[in-house]
């Protein structure tokens, strides 16, 4: 999908836009329309469980926890889902849950605190040479980051946000650049964004290295709740560097 977006932007050829739209409709039909069949009572029924290797809650047949949104056709499909008379459908979203999880697991109080306030704006403040001070109290820090967000919305919502989200999933600067070429003009720009996060949060760096090392040596990771996920190739040997470097499994481990 990212490659298609780049082709649309670079060429202006309407065929690419039509192909993307067609693929979106096909995916919506196969993943949702065809599987969201109502029972005799006119309702959708799912089965909840804890099947992922992380032990997270999930739903099957159909997966009602991943109903698409943010796209026109997806929003139209969501409008088909209604509650019975006198009933309500409530959708809840835990604010910055992934960011706070990263802060918690790395025992990084600054990261955890900023994830609750505005982690993207904090990175933006560093990018524009006006870094917020984490020694400030919550009120002052929150107000300052609001000002940064208002002053630099484009940087905050593009370069900073994509870098933070990618970082939390173990992305390198190279991969971040490949996925968001319309945001980062050069690979060096994406690499610098990742390097900034490393410099701002050394506890995250230590946690990431510790996690990958454990996945490499033990061949698995075990969550605090007892769930196990296997990793056979968290590192690989790089002949040119004459050392072991992270592989694709390293990103998955993080």
Q: What report would you give on this structure?
A:
The two termini are 24 Å apart. The protein has 12 helices and 6 strands. The chain has 254 residues and is mainly alpha-helical. The longest helix is centred in the first third of the chain and has 20 residues. It has a two-stranded antiparallel sheet. Strands 3-4 form a two-stranded antiparallel ribbon. The chain has a two-stranded antiparallel ribbon with strand order 5-6.
Query: How far from one another are the termini?
Result: 24 Å
| Beta-strand residue percentage | 5-15%
- Global structural class: mainly alpha
CA radius of gyration is 21 Å
Topology of this structure?
Layout: H1 2-11, H2 14-33, E1 47-49, E2 58-60, H3 72-78, H4 97-105, H5 109-117, H6 119-127, H7 138-151, H8 153-168, H9 173-179, H10 187-200, H11 202-218, E3 220-222, E4 228-230, E5 235-238, E6 243-246, H12 248-253
């Amino acid at each position: 999908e990212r490659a298609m977006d780049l082709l649309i932007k670079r060429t202006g050829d309407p065929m690419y836009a039509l192909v993307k739209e067609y693929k979106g409709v096909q995916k919506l039909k196969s993943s949702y329309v065809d599987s969201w069949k109502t029972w005799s009572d006119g309702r959708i029924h799912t089965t909840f469980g804890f099947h992922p290797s992380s032990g997270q809650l999930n739903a099957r047949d159909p997966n009602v926890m991943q109903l698409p949104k943010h796209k026109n056709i997806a929003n139209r499909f969501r409008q088909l889902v209604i509650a019975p008379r006198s009933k309500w459908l409530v959708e809840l979203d835990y604010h910055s849950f992934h960011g706070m999880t990263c802060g918690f697991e790395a025992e990084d109080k600054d990261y955890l605190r900023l994830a609750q306030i505005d982690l993207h704006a904090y990175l933006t403040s560093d990018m524009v040479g006006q870094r917020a001070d984490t020694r400030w109290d919550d009120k002052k820090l929150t107000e300052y980051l609001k000002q940064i967000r208002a002053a630099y919305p484009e940087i905050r919502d593009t370069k900073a946000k994509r870098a933070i989200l990618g970082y939390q999933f173990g992305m390198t600067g190279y991969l971040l650049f490949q996925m968001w070429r319309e945001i980062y003009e050069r690979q060096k720009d994406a690499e610098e964004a990742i390097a900034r996060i490393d410099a701002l949060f050394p506890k995250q760096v230590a946690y990431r290295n510790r996690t990958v090392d454990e996945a490499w040596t033990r061949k698995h990771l075990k969550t605090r709740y007892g769930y196990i996920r296997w990793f056979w190739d968290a590192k690989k040997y790089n002949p040119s560097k004459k050392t072991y470097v992270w592989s694709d499994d390293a990103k998955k481990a993080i």
